[in-house]
Amino acid sequence: MLRVKLSRKCATMAEPKTIVNPLFLREDDLRQAIELLFFAYRDFTARGDAILARQHFGRAHHRILYFVGRYPGIPVGDLLDILNITKQSLSRVLSQLVREEYVLQKPGTRDRRQRLLYLTDKGKTLERELTSEQRMRFAAAYKDAGAVAVEGFRKVMLGIMDAKARKRFLSPFET
Amino acid sequence: MLRVKLSRKCATMAEPKTIVNPLFLREDDLRQAIELLFFAYRDFTARGDAILARQHFGRAHHRILYFVGRYPGIPVGDLLDILNITKQSLSRVLSQLVREEYVLQKPGTRDRRQRLLYLTDKGKTLERELTSEQRMRFAAAYKDAGAVAVEGFRKVMLGIMDAKARKRFLSPFET
DNA sequence: CGATTATGTCAGCAGTGTTGACATAAAACG
DNA sequence: CGTTTTATGTCAACACTGCTGACATAATCG
């Protein structure tokens, strides 16, 4: 579970971790964990970015499409909470999606200040195109890894995210 | 500063998945997987970004500091391979780090065209500050999740990344 | 020597996140 | 009812990061 490559080209590659030092190995595990997350996320998002670039969109557009598809009728404020960005950042991208008819806004019934968001058919189509590759990626990885591994992945990811986000996963119907 | 929770406000939250439909559940698992990765990565990088902002740096600076610290003496080309960005993108940030003496460049001995990269003490200090929070995050998550979960996390992440990156993890001494 | 490689640099564009300031409509409250 | 707060939007400016294209230098290779 050691080092990555570069061996041929990178001079200071040696440093074999052969000595059984629990503490040292732990450091190595943590370093590897960081890299696993980095490379997985990098590759996970790469193809979607390419698709988005075709229509002059970016990753932010995908995130909006995804979460609006996930929670049809979501108010803007809730979307801001999920994305953890400012309303100005969201607005720029969201208004573009509304203008180009990927997303539809309806005034709230209970609270007419709210603008509830929905995907149009056009939006659904693009969202599916973007997300399906990512779902296939996970489907393949889950299949290869097995059910036990999947549960482990889930546990570690929940441990990495902040408590607030973790709560959303663990208790779907709470404030 | 926090908004409210989705559940209360978002009308179309219901959709209980009570019906035992394997295919449907699978879709739900994949959707959850995507979100786990999204939220974990978002929160994983947030504090580092805040630290970097203090010195007018960004996430790209951290990545360079991290991988140069990881592979002292790494040539620029190898770093480009790891980061998967253009040399122009790298150059802007790297030359800044060199100028401000976080990173040191030495001409290669075998190939004098190469510029081998090393962290200065200043660079090591900043890198440690940035990465230590991330390591602690994983240390806590790993501890809570347990060894089996960690192995599962590792398997799933390897499955998500592209084959090229996976190889780097699995066969430490190859290109 | 000519071709390729490793690296760098200048310039411009796009996407995304930030802060600050200001505006409107509706809900909440006393 | 009138004041305050909330939900949302908008304009503007700035910073970081990625990309493409073009061009330059030095060293290695064949």
What is the fold's blueprint, element by element?
Two copies of one chain form a homodimer.
Chain A: H1 22-54, H2 59-70, E1 74-75, H3 76-83, H4 87-99, E2 103-107, E3 115-119, H5 121-145, H6 147-160, H7 163-170
Antiparallel strand pairs in A: 1-3, 2-3
Chain A binds a DNA duplex (30 and 30 nucleotides) through helix 2 and helix 4.
The number of E-state strands of chain A comes to 3
Query: In the residues of chain A, how many domains can be counted?
Result: 1
- Structural Rg of chain A: 21 Å
User: What structural category characterises the helix and strand content of chain A?
Assistant: mainly alpha
In short:
Chain A is mainly α and 175 residues long. Helices cover 65% and strands 7% of the residues of chain A. Chain A has a three-stranded antiparallel sheet with strand order 1-3-2.
